[in-house]
Structures are given as C-alpha cells and as structure tokens.
Specification:
The structure is a single chain. This protein has 3 domains: about 100 residues, no CATH class; about 110 residues, Beta-Lactamase; about 200 residues, Rossmann fold (3-Layer(aba) Sandwich). Helices cover about 40% and strands about 25% of the residues. The chain has 18 helices and 17 strands. The strands form 4 sheets. A 7-stranded mixed β-sheet has the order 11-10-12-13-9-14-17, sandwiched between helices. It has a 6-stranded antiparallel β-sheet with strand order 5-4-3-8-7-6. The longest helix has 16 residues.
Length: about 500
C-alpha cells in the first residue's frame, strides 16, 4: 500500500532518508544492522518484511546500498561495525530505472484489495487491533501487538480515507451520518474467515478515526488450563461452577481478556445438554452452539429487554457481555435468584472491588450475598519469548516484593532479550494473571452485613484468594513473564466504599 499516486517517488523519498535515519544508529553485526534497515523499509513502504528483504537485495544490486570495507584490528574484529552498510548517493532516475518493474511496488488493484491487504499484514504481525488515525495530511496506521500499540506506517490522507470508507462498506456501516460514531462487523473473504473483525469509527478533531478489533476464532474459546489459571485456582473455579446456579462475575479493565475467560468457561460447562445463551453489545464471537442475541437499540432491543426474553426461552446458562447499568445489574441478579447460571463481566480492580461495583449499581447486599458464587479478577501480561529469554540477579527491591506476598524469592528472575521470532521485543503472546474468590458462607454473611471493600479484600485473601500480584510473581518464578510486566499490570488502590445501610 505504497502511496498510490506516485509509489516510486515514495520509494525514492524513503531511500533518500536512509542515511539520515541510520547515520548514528546502526550497530552490531552485519545481519542485525540489515534487519534494522529491512524493518524500516517495511514500515515506511507498508510492505511485508519478506518483500522489504527482497527490496534490500535489489537496492544492493542497483548500487543504492553497498558494503563498507571491513577494516580489521589486530585481534581480527571489525573496528567500526556500526558502519558496515553504506547508503550511496544515487539519483532518482537510477532508482526508478532499476526498480520500476518490480511487482511488489505496484499499486494493488482496487481499494477492496488495499483493505484486505492491510488486514493480512496485521494478522501476520499478530495484531489484535488496528488503528487508523488522521495525522495532518496523512493517516497513521498502528497495530496493537501483545497489548502494546506500535507504529506501522503512515499513508496519504486520501489513501487513508479510502481505506476507512472501504472498511465501513465491508461492515455495512451506514455512512449517511458521517458525524456520528458507528460500529459493525466486517464481512471478510474466505481467506480471513478464521477471524471475527469488528469496526468502530468516530469523528475526531482532524477528520475520522477507525479502530478494528481482530478476534481469532481459535483463541476466543480455549481450554481453561491454557488461560493462565494456577492448578489451585482452576480447582476452586470448577468446584464453584458445579452448583449449576448463581452468578460468576469476571472483573478487569478493557482488554484484560474477560470475554475469552467467560466464553471458555461456558464451553467448559457445555455438556451438550444445556441451553446456553448470550446477550452482548456487540456479540464478540459467533458460536453456533450458543443462542446469541445482540443489543439493537435502533429496534428497541436493549440489553435488559434481551435478557428478559432469553430467560423466558428455557435457558440454563446466560452470558451477559457486561453489566454497565442499574437495570442490567438488577435483571442479572433476578435471573441468578431464579436458579439460572449467570456469567458476566464488570470493570473493577480486583475481586473485592467487584462487590463495590455491583453495590454502586444499586444491587442490594442481600442479593449479592445470596447470588454470588465466584468472582474472578484478571489482567493480561506478555509472555517471554522462549527463543531468547535470559536471567538476571534480583535487586533488594525485587526481593522485598516477593517477601511482601509471602513468596520465596528466586535466585534470579527472567528478563527479555529480543530476536527475530519476537520481532526484537523479547516477548511473544500473552497470558492471564488471575485472582479468584469463591464466596464462602462467611464472606456471604459479611457482604450481607455491608462490610466494606478493604475488609472484604482481607477476608477473601484469608479464605484462599491469591492476589493478582502474587499470581503474577508465581509466573515470574516459573519463567513465564518478567517482574517489569507484573509491576505494570496492577491498578493503584483507592479508598474503599463503606456500606452500612440496613436496607442493603
């Protein structure tokens, strides 16, 4: 997706920027410095790294890039490894003449092809989200990979707007009202059928911004053991779900993996003899075995009304995508009190804060105490790349962190390195960090009596709930992730709400 109007001129611009970009930054062995140049070409020209590597070879053949003379010291090592590649002064005519017939620089046919190609590149880079944001007279494209937002490339504003429009057409989004936010699901070709792709567009100061969420079908429902649950936590959770009624709530910020956990729990409980339904806004993932209802306010189908309808359809288990308001919270608790198994998610810091969140939505303490069966809080952290990770010694502050959670500090902890497999980040994929609280009779009594958040937190820990930090530190000891990842995942504590009203 090189700028369609003058792709070769864009190539010339990028090549001319090489000496300025790498004059003081190239370092290391020849292959490592070559990798830096290849990635720069791929990003700036919006082509794959494989195509950029081919382009690198062509630029060498054209004399644009050359090898510097290797001056050896007495010990046989290169004296100046950071200058191994020379960016020669070559005119535009020579570049165009050498490269104008190369297929990977030809504009793709049709805007539909451009949209599909961008999605393919996002998937190749393991992106979960694609952001197209206006930036002056350009549109910036960014990918979220392993939870981190990364710059991918910039496009001419005209090309970027065409891409956004095509994505909206693929999602059958109504473009008649350009000054409103829109949401939808893309209709994708067979080659991308393993992914559900959602679009959200909204007007911004410099035009319009589009965000795409890419959901892999084989990742949304997974065996519970692969999500990151400890053996103790998994045993607690399976015991709590055997009752067949009551409510299980998963708490965490946006992007913490709550939907994957909820879908995976439903799949675990599905024995082929259950009527399982979901009500979501929007439906995150199509599961043929489930009865799925999407909120549609334009046609009078609110989340609360949809839930009430589902409860009249002989359902055994119901997933409510997210409890956001008082009406939904009330309806969910009523369904749980009627003997249904209800699952849902909320935005909350930890398991005790989930109780506070539901109290803030006017759910009474008596209802919470009688209906809550289990509370899960979770985050996602990056896994260490297995190809290049190493270890480092603990410092005193690290040791104190382990001691504060009652965990024996290891001699050394893992740290990232970076290689081609992980694209230089040192991390590959993500894993869940979990805190699980089973609502025991004593905890239910404390909730019913209006015990405050801090007291509930301490009580749940006493009854066996392992904190998010402790679960993360155990994964550090196992070599799965790093201390730096764990320390960035936890939200700061705030003053808890204290509830003493007898009416609750």
């Amino acid at each position: 997706m090189v700028r369609q109007d003058t792709p070769l001129m864009r190539l010339v611009e990028v090549i001319h920027s090489l000496p300025h970009r790498f004059r003081d930054e190239l370092s290391g062995a020849r292959q490592a410095t070559r990798t830096q140049v290849v990635r720069f070409l791929a990003t700036q020209l919006c082509i794959s790294e494989q195509a950029a590597d081919t382009l690198f070879e062509e630029l060498c053949l054209a004399g644009v890039i050359g090898r510097r003379n290797e001056v050896l010291e007495e010990n046989g090592r290169l004296r100046d490894e950071c200058q191994q590649w020379a960016f020669n002064s070559v005119g535009e005519t020579e570049i165009v003449s050498a490269l104008e017939q190369k297929a990977h620089l030809e504009p793709m046919a049709g805007h539909d092809g451009q949209a599909i190609e961008l999605l393919r590149r996002a998937i190749q880079n393991r992106a979960t989200d694609v952001h197209l944001t206006p930036f002056g007279d350009e549109v910036e494209v960014r990918f979220r990979v392993d939870g981190r937002l990364e710059h991918y490339c910039r496009l001419d504003a005209a090309v970027g707007r065409q891409l956004m429009a095509q994505f909206k057409v693929m999602a059958s989004v109504d473009s008649v009202e350009p000054f409103r936010a829109h949401e939808g699901r893309l209709n994708v070709p067979a080659g991308l059928s393993d992914f559900d792709i959602r679009i959200t567009s909204t007007p911004v100061a410099l035009g319009e911004s589009v965000a795409l969420r890419l959901l892999s079908r084989d990742q949304i429902i997974r065996p519970l053991a692969t999500l990151g649950f400890s053996s103790q936590g998994l045993e607690q959770l399976t015991q709590a779900m055997k009752g067949g009624e009551g409510m299980v709530v998963v708490g965490g910020p946006s992007g913490a993996g709550k939907t994957t956990t909820l879908y995976s729990v439903l799949h675990y409980l599905d024995n082929g003899h259950q009527n399982i339904a979901t009500i979501e806004d929007p439906v995150e993932h199509i599961v043929p075995e489930f009865l799925q209802v999407q909120v549609d306010l334009r046609h009078g189908r609110s989340l609360t009304e949809g839930l009430r309808t589902l409860l009249r359809m002989d359902t055994d288990m119901v997933l409510i995508g997210e409890i956001r308001d008082i009406d939904t919270a009330t309806a969910a608790m009523q369904a749980a009190s009627c003997g249904k198994h209800i699952f849902s998610g909320v935005h909350a810091r930890d398991v005790a804060a989930v109780v506070t969140c539901l109290r803030d939505l006017n759910v009474t303490n008596r209802s919470l105490a009688s209906n809550l069966r289990a509370i899960i809080s979770q985050r996602l952290v990056r896994r260490l790349c297995e190809q290049c990770r190493s270890k480092r010694a603990l410092c005193e502050s690290d040791r104190e962190l382990f001691n504060s959670e009652g965990i024996s500090a290891p001699v050394a902890v893992p740290q990232p390195v970076g290689c081609d497999a992980c694209r230089g980040s040192g991390y590959y994929d993500r894993i869940g960090i979990f805190e699980i609280a089973i609502v025991q009779p004593e905890t239910a009594t404390a909730i019913a009596s209006g015990e405050g958040e801090q007291e509930l937190r301490q009580r749940m820990r006493t009854e066996g709930a392992v904190s998010l930090m402790a679960d993360g530190l155990h994964k550090v000891c196992e070599g799965i992730t790093t201390l730096e990842e764990i320390q960035t995942m936890c939200w700061p504590q705030r003053q808890p709400h204290i509830f003493k009203s007898e009416s609750q």
